[in-house]
């Protein structure tokens, strides 16, 4: 059964190299079944989610349908074929994924090359609304159809049925599509992908999962032909191996009728073949049963930080997904939460590792193993001390029961997560609901609605006792075999024997790692200041939004509404953003996005804030915009006042703990080398900075700059910036107006009046035209490269309507470049063209085309980009080309406008720039209405070769 994820503690840095989830621990006694039990719930006593209607067609197709009005008029369809890469033979490696590609190329009702344009004309964006994915265990076709009228719905099911049941395989199609798949393989190859491949190979040694990457191999793909691909399709694409899931704004009976009409006649010969044996983890003979550390592996990757992880592996068994089983999972998750909190506390206190975590894998181990995985990122090259520190924390959890106070604290965190699920269940999107069923089918479990999940949690609370948690912890660290993996940037600093020894040596239990129980309450905290009052309130003339001004000058955009029950979005904009940061202080900008919130408030450090937030839905996220700094939070009605207190207190009484700054520095230094690992990583590091005149405030700090940064310098820069500049609060969502105003008066209204400041103006521009591209290098795969061509446009709120028309032009360009670089020559898997227009700056906008390609394909890309730009400027695009862009854009805006986040994004800063209010009134028309002549005129104005700027990222030349 799926549970909502427990709220993650925000670390502000991500260095994961292994993201796996797993399957249940063991089989439990089955629940009695009745003839009326839906197919998903066979063997389970978990109450059925009555929103879903389940059934099976006479030909064996299983289906699940439900009415869901989020967003309105959309229908989300998922067709799951229970066959992925682990169903392939050695000679068929990559075929399951190749079939996914070929299905989009040509099928019964769609001629070659028609699929993507057809879905675009129906309003679906390729890649987000229209997509497919292949995993080791399944292939899923995904469609989110906007404005699903009966006619459009019928057409959708018709076309989809032809794609799944009757794709057309030809040798020409295979030979055309294989280079595209090889481009995908090439572009995904990286140090990170090599680590994942090596990790799978080690952890699942002797199992199919170890060697069945869905992308396949160049040898098997190049050898593919239509007959061989069709043989795989004929074997596994069959009604009794297919599940259709539909959730959307239509009556279930209508959806079932469409499934019956278009899939009910699908028939195949023969019996359903048996599923392959995926294998199970097996320990070599002679291992210590108490500490069965098996094969170890050390992988040298110069551009990646050190990471040590080890998996405690157990065989996977199909479970009966019962209430009792899920209550046991609750205890397991609580046990892990306790250990992870202790690990994080030790890291914050100056431990030898930057990050460490323990996870029980429950969803994505492809029915191949059940595992507990420990991951450690050492602070420096002393990886052995980091492993010992982490093992010491785990040893204490294995030796001694936790206190009831610790348990109650984690239980309170679980409870708020499940309560939020109940409170916000009416906002669950149909696409999310459909994906949940698909995932449940894949892992052979059920789904439950949020009320059921919360009820099972409450029934589990009597199990949350110290001895039960200790028993669960011990079980999580027992397994058939333990396999460790180390990634290191330096050869020779670790051996496989040393790595194995680091897990077998005795360690002392770290009793000092236990985290104090919660004793802090918001009621005990000092007030922000003397409460202010509402000085003025007026409607802005848009929906029910008001503009409030408090007596200290703080301005508020306030919109209480019931569009998303149980949810409130809050943003606090203040100060001058990047424009207020001195270029010589640039290093402290990115450090601030990580460390500023972790450095505390008043007398409270980050650990204190965590205790204070126990059982609450509170956030304190921070980022930097061009002309403002921004706190943001997603909270709920019960926690609104305390959420506002945290934000206001951060401005009133900031704390300046040194450890978060030092930790952020260490993380940034570890991460920096990874930016050389691939051409796209280089672009991620440098492109924004380069397109902003090389302004250091937009640069990624290098290790030399980071070494110069200090906690004292951090405070010296940030302390005055937190205290200056106007404040705007945007608050949209499910709250009572009067209560919200009272909370604002006590928090932001209690701040002292802030002096207005005028930061230096930011007037960025992309670099001048360069006939010869700027060349950067990467240290990744020598077959990889990347290229960018950008044309300057403009900026400023006055040009907002033109900026939206430029997005239409960019998407027309994108479709043409996609056809040229991917479909015609297979040089790039996913070329991208986009438009950027900074609304709060007078300049700095651009249209940019970005591709990954082979180093030999630069000339083809630049020639194609120049040809498309010149053609768009010379003659107008066709009406059909425009419709393929404007219809999806129209649908994206229509769907997005049903949520508060859309309006908040559009109106941020409107209290000080009312032009944004006028700008939102025309947004739908601006993105969905244009003319061929308008597109041609914009192309002629902006897409001129003598203004373009070009960049190449090439492989670094190896020294002889």
From TrEMBL:
Leader sequence residues: 1-35
Source species, domain of life: Bacteria
Keyword entries, A-Z: Hydrolase, Metalloprotease, Protease, Signal, Zinc
Statement: the UniProt record of this protein carries the keyword Mitochondrion: no
InterPro entries named among the record's database cross-references: Metalloenz_LuxS/M16, Pept_M16_N, Peptidase_M16, Peptidase_M16_C
Coiled coil start-end: none
Peptidase M16 C-terminal domain sequence ranges: 225-292, 732-885
Keyword Transcription: no
Family per record: Belongs to the peptidase M16 family.
Protein name in the entry: Zinc protease
């Amino acid at each position: 059964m799926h549970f909502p994820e427990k709220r993650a503690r925000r670390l502000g840095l991500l260095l994961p190299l292994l993201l796996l989830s797993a399957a249940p621990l063991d089989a439990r006694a089955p629940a009695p079944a009745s003839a009326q039990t839906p197919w998903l719930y066979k063997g389970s006593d978990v109450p059925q989610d009555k929103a879903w209607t389940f059934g099976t067609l006479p030909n064996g197709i299983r289906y699940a349908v439900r009415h869901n009005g989020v967003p309105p008029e959309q229908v989300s369809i998922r067709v799951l074929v229970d066959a992925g890469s682990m169903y392939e033979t050695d000679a068929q490696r990559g075929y399951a994924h190749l079939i996914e590609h070929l299905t989009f190329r040509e099928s019964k009702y769609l001629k070659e090359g028609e699929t993507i344009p057809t879905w675009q004309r129906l309003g679906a964006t390729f890649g987000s609304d229209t997509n497919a994915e292949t995993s080791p265990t399944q292939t899923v076709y995904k469609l989110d159809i906007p404005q699903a009228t009966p006619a459009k719905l019928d057409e959708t099911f018709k076309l989809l049925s032809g794609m799944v049941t009757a794709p057309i395989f030809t040798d020409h199609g295979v030979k055309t599509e294989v280079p595209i798949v090889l481009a995908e393989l090439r572009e995904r190859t990286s140090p990170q992908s090599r680590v994942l491949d090596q990790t799978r190979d080690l952890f699942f040694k002797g199992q199919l999962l170890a060697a069945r990457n869905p992308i396949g191999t160049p040898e098997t793909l190049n050898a593919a032909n239509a007959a061989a691909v069709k043989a795989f399709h004929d074997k596994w694409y069959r009604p009794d191996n297919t599940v259709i899931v539909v959730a959307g704004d239509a009556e279930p009976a209508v959806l079932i009728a469409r499934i019956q009409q278009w899939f009910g006649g699908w028939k195949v010969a023969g019996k359903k073949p048996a599923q392959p044996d995926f294998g199970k983890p097996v320990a070599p003979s002679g291992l210590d049963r108490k500490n069965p550390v098996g094969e170890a592996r050390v992988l040298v990757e110069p551009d990646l930080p050190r990471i040590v992880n080890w998996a405690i592996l157990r065989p996977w068994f199909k479970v009966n997904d019962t209430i009792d089983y899920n209550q046991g999972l609750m205890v397991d998750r609580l046990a892990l939460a306790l250990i992870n909190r202790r690990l994080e506390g030790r890291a914050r206190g100056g431990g030898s590792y930057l990050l460490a975590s323990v996870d029980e894998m429950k969803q994505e181990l492809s029915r191949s193993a059940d595992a507990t995985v420990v991951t450690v990122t050492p602070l420096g090259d002393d990886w052995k001390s980091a492993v010992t520190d982490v093992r010491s924390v785990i040893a204490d959890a294995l030796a001694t029961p936790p206190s009831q106070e610790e348990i109650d604290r984690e239980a309170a965190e679980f409870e708020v997560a499940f309560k939020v699920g109940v409170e916000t269940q009416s906002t669950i999107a149909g696409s999310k609901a459909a994906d949940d069923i698909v995932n449940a089918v894949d892992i052979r479990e059920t789904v439950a609605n949020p009320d059921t999940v919360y009820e099972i949690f409450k029934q589990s609370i009597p199990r949350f006792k110290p001895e039960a948690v200790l028993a669960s912890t011990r079980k999580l660290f027992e397994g058939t075999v333990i396999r460790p993996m180390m990634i290191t940037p330096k050869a020779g600093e670790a051996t496989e024997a040393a790595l194995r020894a680091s897990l077998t040596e005795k360690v002392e239990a770290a009793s000092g790692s236990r985290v104090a129980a919660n004793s802090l309450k918001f009621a005990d905290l000092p007030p922000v200041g003397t409460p202010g009052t509402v000085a003025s309130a007026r409607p802005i003339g848009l929906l029910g939004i008001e503009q409030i001004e408090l007596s200290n000058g703080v301005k508020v955009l306030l919109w209480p509404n019931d569009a998303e029950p149980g949810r409130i979005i809050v943003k606090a904009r203040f100060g001058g953003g990047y424009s207020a940061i001195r270029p010589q202080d640039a290093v402290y900008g990115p450090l601030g996005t990580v460390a500023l919130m972790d450095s505390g408030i008043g007398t409270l450090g980050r650990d204190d804030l965590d205790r204070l937030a126990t059982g609450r839905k509170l956030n304190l996220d921070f980022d930097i915009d061009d002309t403002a700094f921004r706190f943001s939070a997603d909270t709920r009605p019960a926690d609104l006042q305390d959420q506002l207190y945290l934000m206001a207190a951060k401005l009133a009484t900031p704390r300046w703990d040194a450890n978060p700054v030092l930790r952020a520095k260490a993380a940034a230094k570890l991460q920096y080398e990874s930016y050389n690992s691939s051409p796209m990583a280089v672009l991620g590091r440098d492109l924004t900075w380069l397109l902003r005149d090389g302004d250091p405030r937009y640069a990624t700090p290098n290790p030399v700059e980071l070494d110069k940064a200090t906690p004292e310098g951090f405070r010296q820069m940030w302390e005055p910036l937190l205290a200056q500049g106007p404040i705007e609060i945007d608050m949209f969502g499910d709250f009572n107006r009067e209560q919200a105003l009272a909370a604002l008066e006590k928090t932001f209204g209690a701040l002292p009046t802030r002096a207005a400041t005028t930061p230096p103006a930011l007037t960025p521009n992309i670099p001048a035209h360069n006939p010869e591209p700027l060349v950067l290098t990467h240290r990744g795969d020598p077959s990889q490269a990347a290229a960018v061509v950008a044309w300057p446009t403009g900026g400023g709120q006055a040009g907002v309507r033109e900026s939206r028309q430029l997005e239409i032009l960019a998407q027309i360009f994108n479709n043409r470049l996609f056809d040229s670089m991917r479909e015609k020559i297979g040089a790039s898997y996913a070329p991208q063209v986009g438009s950027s227009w900074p609304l709060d700056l007078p300049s700095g906008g651009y249209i940019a085309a970005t591709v990954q390609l082979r180093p030999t394909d630069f000339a083809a890309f630049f020639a194609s980009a120049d040809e498309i730009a010149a053609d768009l400027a010379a003659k107008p695009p066709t009406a059909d080309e425009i419709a393929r862009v404007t219809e999806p854009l129209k649908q994206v805006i229509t769907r997005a406008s049903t949520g508060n986040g859309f309006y908040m994004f559009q109106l941020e800063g409107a209290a000080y720039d009312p032009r944004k209010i006028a700008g939102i009134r025309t947004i739908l028309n601006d993105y969905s209405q244009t003319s061929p002549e308008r597109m041609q005129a914009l192309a002629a104005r902006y897409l001129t070769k003598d203004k373009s700027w070009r960049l190449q990222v090439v492989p670094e030349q190896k020294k002889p």
